[in-house]
């Protein structure tokens, strides 16, 4: 059985005090479940404190990005080992905002994936098409390219445990959620691609999250689909009650 995982990507929200408050609210409201794992991804400045606050809970801690290099003259960057040193276990890589706003390429994301895995961080590997790509019939080609290039040179044993997040760009922050059928179709496509590239075993064991306007009201139906194993939540994870409700409905 694949584990269901609901992760909250805080994006560039919450200063340190606000982060502490939100984590405490989540801890208070969340009834931990064996079958659904919760992960939060605050900003870099809150990770150290978050890891202290989360100790003794089952809530996982993720960063939102990292550098592909170990150390040195990379102003403004944060390395995998630095994330590990503050207690991070996961890192979101390839988010569409990193791809579009910060110009990250599949090649760079691939280097980050390799570095994260080598550093014992579990990647949450994000992929997804734009509306234009979907409407022009290019969706599957785009997804396939992101998967093949993002995972290039990564062995099956190294990839095992990696979380994949399908986030259609047109559904992110727009309130336009993919229908359960639309999402399921792409999730099945991604799982099949993993089977082709690796093995049935790896494909069946890989958690594939859906992201894009997930709310308490639509979470159950989406996550109820055969190949949808959880959610990567943006806006709705900034309030403890809606984040916790999504986990409850998963
Ligand atoms: P929204 O839930 O705000 O659409 O954001 C999704 C997302 O980008 C999570 O990484």
Structural description of this entry:
By secondary structure, the protein is an alpha/beta fold. The protein has a single domain, classed as TIM Barrel, CATH 3.20.20.70. It has 12 helices and 8 strands. Strands 1-2-3-4-5-6-7-8 form an 8-stranded parallel beta barrel, surrounded by 6 helices. Strand 7, helix 11 and strand 8 form a beta-alpha-beta unit. The longest helix is centred in the C-terminal third of the chain and has 18 residues. The chain is globular. The mean pLDDT is about 95. It binds 1,3-dihydroxyacetonephosphate (13P). 1,3-dihydroxyacetonephosphate binds next to strand 8.
What are the defining features of this structure?
250 residues; alpha/beta; TIM Barrel; eight-stranded parallel beta barrel; 12 helices; 45% helix; globular; binds 1,3-dihydroxyacetonephosphate
Short account of what is shown:
The protein is an alpha/beta fold and 250 residues long. It has helices at 16-29, 44-54, 80-85, 96-100, 106-118, 131-135, 139-150, 156-159, 180-197, 200-205, 216-223, 240-249; strands at residues 4-9, 36-41, 60-63, 90-93, 122-127, 163-166, 208-211, 230-233. Strands 1-2-3-4-5-6-7-8 form an 8-stranded parallel beta barrel, surrounded by 6 helices.
Rg calculated over all Cα atoms: 17 Å
Number of helices: 12
CATH topology descriptor: TIM Barrel
- CATH superfamily placement: Aldolase class I
Tell me the count of domains.
1
Ions, cofactors, ligands: which are bound? Answer: 1,3-dihydroxyacetonephosphate
Helix content: 40-55%
Q: Give the strand line-up of the largest sheet.
A: 1-2-3-4-5-6-7-8
Give the structural class. Answer: alpha/beta
Number of beta-strand segments: 8
Biggest beta sheet attributes? 8 strands, parallel, barrel
